[in-house]
């Protein structure tokens, strides 16, 4: 007798979960959702339109670097969003 006798009935669990989150008005914060290829597919954000910007500053104990922000240009507008919020 096999160890596994059944499994998931649908193989597109990520798509189903994202659709359900969209229905509930939620935004996925999973790292895979923020990948450049996924952003290109769902939000039409092309990798060549994106620039990672890090902020370095001096502290009492040395220096710190803030997490990178994604910068995207829409004409003359500048849009910044921390990676953790994408």
From TrEMBL:
<dbReference type="GO" id="GO:0046872">
    <property type="term" value="F:metal ion binding"/>
</dbReference>
<dbReference type="GO" id="GO:0005737">
    <property type="term" value="C:cytoplasm"/>
</dbReference>
<keyword id="KW-0004">4Fe-4S</keyword>
<dbReference type="GO" id="GO:0051539">
    <property type="term" value="F:4 iron, 4 sulfur cluster binding"/>
</dbReference>
<dbReference type="GO" id="GO:0002926">
    <property type="term" value="P:tRNA wobble base 5-methoxycarbonylmethyl-2-thiouridinylation"/>
</dbReference>
<keyword id="KW-0949">S-adenosyl-L-methionine</keyword>
<keyword id="KW-0411">Iron-sulfur</keyword>
<protein>
    <submittedName>
        <fullName>Uncharacterized protein</fullName>
    </submittedName>
</protein>
<keyword id="KW-0408">Iron</keyword>
<keyword id="KW-0479">Metal-binding</keyword>
<dbReference type="GO" id="GO:0033588">
    <property type="term" value="C:elongator holoenzyme complex"/>
</dbReference>
<dbReference type="InterPro" id="IPR039661">
    <property type="entry name" value="ELP3"/>
</dbReference>
<dbReference type="GO" id="GO:0005634">
    <property type="term" value="C:nucleus"/>
</dbReference>
């Amino acid at each position: 007798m096999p160890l596994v006798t059944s499994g998931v009935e649908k193989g597109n669990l990520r798509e189903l979960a994202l659709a359900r989150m969209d229905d509930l008005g939620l935004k996925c914060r999973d790292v895979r959702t923020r990948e450049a290829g996924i952003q290109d597919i769902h939000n039409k954000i092309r990798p060549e339109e994106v620039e990672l910007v890090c902020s370095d500053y001096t502290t009492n104990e040395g220096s710190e670097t803030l997490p990178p922000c994604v910068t995207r240009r829409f004409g003359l507008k500048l849009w910044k969003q921390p990676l953790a919020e994408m």
